[in-house]
Specification:
By secondary structure, the chain is of the alpha/beta class. It has a single domain, classed as Vaccinia Virus protein VP39 (Rossmann fold, 3-Layer(aba) Sandwich), CATH 3.40.50.150. The chain is built from six helices and seven strands; from the N terminus they run ααβαβαββαβαββ. The chain has a seven-stranded mixed β-sheet with strand order 3-2-1-4-5-7-6, sandwiched between helices. Helix 2 runs parallel beside helix 3 and helix 5 crosses helix 6. The protein is globular and about 45 Å long.
């Protein structure tokens, strides 16, 4: 189902809330279509714009997306956005995911999109390790714009010889993409 997200884009623009641009949206959609993940998780998302992109892409496959937000205003906006857009395949949690036993929701995940506090990317990754399936894809957003904050994650991945790639989008944004083995 095609959804009109123009009001959400206008709201984000008026309130200086960063959202993924059209190239990032297209990349995420194409990536999901090529991989068809079953169990999806998203960590933080401001007004949940990327949540809507992910959920609307996977809904035809009857898959669900679990998404966490710990800012109550953002969580409430997300609930409203999800409801308004009639997305029924999304489970929203107002909770800090690292303090929540996500294993009770789903034992493992095969796609995770992370767009939270960039300086916490390493701790997010370490918290998620027990829940990663083989061939799980993790995408960390905005690694160029926040290079200094993301360096602990990149350093850890180098030290542990964990393979990852940086996807350079034409808009100058970089995504860090990691696939578990």
């Amino acid at each position: 189902m095609k959804r009109d997200i123009s009001r959400l884009v206008t709201f984000a623009t008026m309130h200086s809330i960063p959202i993924c641009d059209s190239e990032t949206q297209q990349f995420i959609k194409e990536f999901l279509i090529s991989r068809k993940p079953v169990s999806c998780l998203e960590i933080w998302s401001a007004i949940w714009f990327s949540t809507i992109i992910i959920a609307s892409t996977i809904e035809d496959w009857r898959w669900k997306l679990i998404s966490f937000e710990y800012s109550y205003p953002s969580y409430m906006r997300a609930c409203n956005n999800i409801h308004t857009l009639l997305l029924t395949n999304t489970i929203l949690y107002y909770h800090h995911f690292s303090k929540f036993d996500i294993g009770k929701l789903w034992k493992t995940f095969d796609f995770i999109f992370i767009d939270g506090e960039k300086g916490s990317y390493l701790s997010y990754y370490l918290d998620l390790l027990p829940y990663l399936r083989n061939n799980c894809i993790l995408i960390f957003d905005d690694v160029l714009q926040y290079t200094e904050q993301v360096l602990p994650l990149i350093s850890y991945l180098h030290v542990t010889k964990t393979q990852f790639k940086i996807h350079d989008l034409w808009n100058g944004d970089w995504l860090l993409i990691l696939e578990t083995k």
